Every structure is written in C-alpha cells, then in structure tokens.
C-alpha cells in the first residue's frame, strides 16, 4: 500500500469541503452568483420558450417566503415539462448565475415533491410582513375618518364588494408587492404616509386623499387572476384589454350612481384614479389636476420605490453594494454599515 502525501491529504480535505459546499439549501434572498443551491421552491409561473437557435428551454419564476428568482431549464424534455406543469412545489439543484445584473438559477435537476416529504405550500409563500386581517382592519379604520357621507359610503361599498379577495391579493403579478397580501400592504403604507403628509400640507382635503388611496389600485383584483396564495397565473381578459385604471374609473361611476353620488365628487375621484400613473405610457392619459391627485401619485411612487430599495438590500452585507436593480434604473444599491 502506497504512502499518503501531505498534498494528497490537503487535496482530500479540499475535496470534502467542496463536496459539502456543492449543493446547500439557500433562501432566495440569500442566493449569490457563483454558489449552488438545492431545495424546495414554489413555481410561480413558467413558459416553454425557444433560444435564437430554435432550441426549447423552460423559463421559470421560483419563489419562497423571502423572494422570487428567475430560473432556466436548458435541457428541455417532455418529462421535465410535465414535472413543471403538474407540480406547485419542486425540488431543484442548480447554479446561481448573474445575467444582466440580476440573479438567475440554472436548474440542473428538478423533481416533484414526494408525498412523504412534509413541505407545506404555506411555508414557501411570500407574504406581507403583517397579518392580512390586521391590515384590513387598519385600512378600514381610515374609511371611518372620511367625513363626507357620500364618499365614505362609496368607499365602504366598493371595499366590502372585494373584502375576501383583499385578504390575499398581491399588488402586481411580479415586481412590487407581488405576494400574498401585497395589495393591502401597499395600500396601508400609502395611507399612513398620506395621513402624515396631510398634517404638513393642511389645506388638502383628506377625504379625497383617503378615498383616492383606498380606491386607486382596488381593481387590480379584476385585472389579475390570483389564487388564495397570492400567486397570479395571468391577467384577466378585462385586465389585458382595459387595465385596473379604467376598471377603477368604471367602478367609481357605477357604484357612485347606485348611491346618487354627487357628479363633481365622482369625477374628481375618477380623475385621481385615472392620473395616478402620471404618464400616458404608464396608463394615465391625464396628469393630476388637483393637489390630492398629485399627492396620490407620489404616495404610490414613494411606496413602490421604498419597497424596491428594501428588497434590493435583502441578503446584502453591510458596507457592500447590491446587484444592479433593473427596477431602480439599473443601479447598484449600497447598504450602510451599522
């Protein structure tokens, strides 16, 4: 039997270290380019696509409680596609890469969760940091602060109409607040910020500020098709053809007519919903023409941007920069040291 050299021992140790590091489960927020991961994730959406060379691959968006990441299965087969189609929860092995400034997972192996594996879908669902029933109660407390009887009744009727779906709907299919309870969380932070700014700019009519915030995105419930886990499978037919802004205007007009809402109040509220995206290319053919409408737009922008900054810094070490964030104009975001 030959002798074992020091070099062999070192190489053996290195191999063992590498072996133990090869596939380690990482939460999505912890994924870093150059690492590998193995674990259970929830399939949020997928699509079979073709490369420029005509080769099929599967494009998947994976989520867990900490976030979302795009993944690719480059070695396409009907069997693999069947696994993806038939399962919400899958176990993968993959390599974390960086593409166009964003993290991406190259999936090397994928299989369905076995019945013997005690992984619950609820454990993988990204969700708002506050219990949805608590958020709904808080949001509804602002309806009570609306002094105008007609505007209050309008908001109450529309919110009660969508009460159950408000408990789980996201604010978007992807990007900001695209998780269970995201629509409520977005609305809650906007209305809390609006209340504070109303104390500074005390000439504002807070009835319209509160009503505008509560109604500006509520028709995302009609725009998107979401399951009870806050996962959007697609946009609805009405959502694709009209969008939540036009649907929101219709909602105010229809429900307003039912209660005999004053014409000016109805038009002003419709204008707030119509103009809150500010630019025609984002769905708003009119810019805000009241101070309350202007404030609504910036409340929306502030909360969306702060969400993007917050999530950009998840998993980033103090004193380091994030990857480039496309939603923030392809910027690297710096995390200050404690």
Question: What labels describe this entry?
Answer:
338 residues, alpha+beta, five-stranded mixed barrel, two-stranded antiparallel ribbon, elongated
The number of helical segments is 12
CATH architecture of the largest domain: Orthogonal Bundle
Structural class: alpha+beta
Widest sheet: strand ordering: 1-2-3-5-4
The number of domains: 2
Number of strands: 9
Radius of gyration over all CA atoms, rounded: 24 Å
Q: Main β-sheet, in a few words? A: 5 strands, mixed, barrel
pLDDT averaged over residues: 89
Task: Report low-confidence residues grouped into runs of 5 or more.
Answer: 13-21
- The CATH class of the largest domain is Mainly Alpha
Shape field = elongated
Describe what this molecule looks like in 3D.
The protein has two domains: 6-123, Beta Barrel (OB fold (Dihydrolipoamide Acetyltransferase, E2P)), CATH 2.40.50.140; 132-312, Hypothetical protein af1432 (Orthogonal Bundle). The protein is 43% helix and 20% strand. The chain contains twelve helices and nine strands. The protein has helices spanning 6-22, 78-86, 132-143, 149-161, 163-166, 182-200, 206-216, 220-223, 237-241, 243-259, 263-275, 291-312; strands at residues 36-50, 56-64, 67-73, 89-99, 102-112, 224-226, 232-235, 321-325, 331-334.
């Amino acid at each position: 039997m030959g002798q074992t050299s020091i070099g062999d021992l070192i190489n053996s140790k290195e191999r063992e270290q590498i072996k133990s590091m090869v596939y380690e489960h990482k939460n999505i927020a912890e994924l870093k380019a150059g690492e590998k991961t193995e674990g259970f994730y929830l399939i949020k959406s997928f699509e079979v696509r073709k490369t420029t060379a005509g080769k099929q691959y599967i494009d998947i968006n994976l989520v867990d409680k900490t976030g979302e990441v795009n993944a690719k299965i480059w070695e396409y087969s009907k069997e693999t596609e069947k696994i993806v189609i038939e399962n919400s929860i899958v176990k993968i092995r993959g390599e974390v890469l960086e593409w166009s400034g964003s993290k991406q997972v190259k999936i090397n192996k994928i299989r369905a969760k076995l019945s013997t594996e005690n992984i619950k879908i609820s454990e993988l669902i990204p969700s708002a940091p506050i219990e949805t029933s608590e958020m709904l109660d808080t949001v509804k407390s602002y309806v009570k602060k609306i002094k105008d009887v007609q505007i209050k009744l309008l908001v109450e009727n529309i919110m009660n109409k969508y009460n159950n779906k408000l408990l789980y709907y996201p604010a978007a299919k992807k990007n900001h607040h695209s998780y269970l309870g995201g629509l409520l969380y977005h609305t809650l932070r906007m209305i809390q910020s609006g209340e504070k700014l109303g104390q500074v700019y005390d000439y504002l009519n807070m009835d319209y500020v509160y009503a505008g915030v509560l109604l500006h995105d509520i028709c995302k419930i009609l725009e998107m098709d979401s399951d009870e886990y806050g996962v959007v499978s697609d946009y609805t037919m009405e959502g694709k053809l009209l969008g939540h802004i036009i649907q929101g205007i219709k909602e105010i007009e229809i429900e307003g007519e039912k209660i005999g809402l004053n014409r000016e109040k109805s038009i002003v509220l419709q204008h707030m919903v119509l103009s809150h995206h500010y630019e025609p290319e984002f769905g708003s053919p009119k810019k805000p023409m009241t101070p309350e409408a202007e404030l609504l737009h910036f409340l929306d922008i502030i909360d969306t941007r702060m969400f993007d900054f917050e999530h950009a810094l998840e998993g980033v070490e103090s004193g380091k920069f994030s990857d480039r964030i496309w939603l923030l104009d392809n910027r690297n975001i710096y995390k200050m040291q404690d």
